[in-house]
Design a protein that fits this description.
heterodimer, A: 248 residues, alpha+beta, Ubiquitin-like (UB roll), five-stranded mixed sheet, two-stranded antiparallel ribbon, elongated, B: 251 residues, mainly alpha, 3 helical TM bundles of succinate and fumarate reductases
């Protein structure tokens, strides 16, 4: 099939950006959006032009490295699918695809389609980890965790940290990301020991770096890991509980 | 942090960002603003439900409606002085409205800023519902102002000609209402406001569930159902009154 690509080109952070128009011919419809960019880059390299910079790693939807905005939709047209699995078969032959970086105030463009998603790392640094000094690993059954609880924690732990939730959000909020971390950790025995302090630290960081949540629900539609919308309620749930509890 | 804490007081790990990020340091946190909006919104939703119940007495005739209006001024009399409950409710409602609108304006502005001026694509009912909240909110604020000038304060030019203020235990609410709704612009503005109000209430209850941290499936479904039922009741019940007056069914 033949596709016209309008791709965002930006030399560096703060530099002015613009859309560049290219035609990619003879591309198979079963290929992904990223493979379209690969084909475009081969074309650009052959003609001596600078290839389009974009991030990708595993190309099987588990790493969270990739992420571009296609026609205004984070990752692409299909819901809950990362850019590396967005197939071109969803587009008619001869159609125009506008490909730009993941867009959010918290994600400054580094180059072309690459954005700095380090603000998400700042959230993890504030409290998205376990800092309990637990000594050597305990026996597997020393701290029993119910199956349902373990499964729920794993559902929230499925987040691959791609940042599509922030890019899809009209408010530039990271509640789906933060909520999934908070729930994943507060459901398990050792991480739950620092539940209160974690949510205070994470929400403080969330307030400083990202926007407020207005319950648009765009995040859960874009999320390639299928994090449920209840994760955004988890932020206020955990924060309100921490405020009500006695400080320890 | 006391020594009973299982971890050290500092839980920052990894190197800090080499590039200083753009941060927002001041002001009331958004999560408290959203919680305040949920609570004040619930207060107004409760008021709207009670107001609807009172409004429906218009279909029982002038005596029932005027009697109810007079009773509102003497609720719990003689335990409370006359009009005390009425004024107490008015003060609570005005404060709640101020908090609700103020918090909404701040959240809206913060959202625009955090988006960074980029275009958004809205997909689905939930998204459009959220987009409609500030839109319906602004119109409803105008409606509340007009409604109070029209049927509470009786101030021209909004109020109908011949607006009668209540006097010594006698209310003229029925006559005022009929006079107001006999003007087509007043009736149809009221109907339009009720459509927007029902949208605002339905989405508002879903937002309330999320903002108060309801994560359970049953809690979320219950709150959405209550919001949906109230929205339908408000739309059908309230909008029926101006339509009935315009059609000449009640006069």
């Amino acid at each position: 099939m033949k596709l016209t690509v309008q791709v965002w080109r930006q030399a560096g952070p703060g530099a002015p950006g613009r859309f560049e128009r290219h035609v990619v011919d003879g591309i198979e419809p079963h290929l992904s959006v990223l493979e379209l960019l690969d084909a475009l880059n081969e074309q650009l390299i052959d003609s001596g032009a600078e290839p389009v910079a974009f991030e990708s790693d595993c190309r099987e939807g588990i790493c969270g490295a990739c992420g571009v905005t296609v026609d205004g939709e984070a990752h692409g047209r299909e819901d809950n699918v990362p850019s590396c699995h967005q197939r071109l078969s969803g587009y008619a032959d001869g159609s125009i695809l506008r490909i730009e970086p993941l867009r959010a105030g918290a994600f400054p463009v580094v180059r072309d389609l690459i954005v700095d998603r380090g603000a998400l790392d700042d959230l993890i640094r504030a409290g998205g980890h376990v800092a309990v000094d637990a000594g050597t690993a305990p026996d597997a059954d020393a701290l029993p965790v119910g199956e349902e609880r373990a499964e729920l924690a794993l559902d929230f732990a499925a987040c691959i940290g791609c940042g599509a939730c922030v890019a899809a959000c009209p408010n530039g909020a990271a509640h789906l990301f933060a909520g999934s971390k908070l729930m994943h950790l507060s459901l398990l025995p050792l991480p739950s020991l620092e539940r209160q302090r974690r949510v205070v630290a994470v929400v403080d960081e969330l307030e400083e770096l990202f926007g407020p949540c207005s319950n648009y629900g765009e995040c859960a539609r874009a999320c390639p890991a299928g994090i449920p919308l209840t994760a955004i309620a988890a932020v206020n749930h955990e924060r309100l509980l921490a405020g009500l509890q006695r400080r320890l | 942090m006391p020594s009973s804490s299982p971890t050290s007081s500092v839980i920052q790990v990894g190197p800090p960002s080499p590039v200083p990020r753009e941060r927002r340091h001041r002001g009331v946190p958004s999560w408290s603003l959203k919680t305040a909006m949920a609570i004040t919104g619930a207060i107004w939703a409760a008021f709207v439900a009670i107001h609807l119940f009172g409004n429906l007495k218009v279909f029982q005739g002038p005596d029932a409606f005027n009697g109810y209006a007079a009773w509102l001024r003497a609720v719990f009399y003689p335990f409370f002085p006359k009009e005390m409950v009425l004024w107490g409710l008015r003060v609570v409602l005005v404060i709640a409205l101020g908090v609700h609108v103020g918090a909404a304006a701040i959240v809206w502005a913060r959202g625009r800023r955090a988006r960074g001026g980029h275009r958004v694509t809205l997909r689905g009912m939930r998204s459009w519902g959220a987009w409609l909240m500030p839109v319906t909110g602004v119109v409803l604020l105008a409606f509340v102002t007009v409604h109070v000038l029209d049927l509470t304060l009786g101030l021209a030019p909004v109020a109908p000609e011949g607006f009668a203020h209540p006097e010594a235990g006698v209310a003229h609410a029925y006559g005022n209402l009929i006079a107001s709704f006999q003007r087509p612009w007043s009736a149809w503005f009221y109907v339009a406001a009720m459509v927007l109000l029902s949208v605002h209430i339905a989405k508002g209850f879903a937002n309330l569930a999320a903002d108060l941290g309801a994560m359970g499936r049953r809690w979320r479904a219950t709150l959405s159902a209550v919001g949906g039922l109230l929205a339908v009741a408000v739309l059908l019940g309230n909008a029926a009154i101006p339509i009935a007056v315009q059609m000449g069914w009640i006069a």
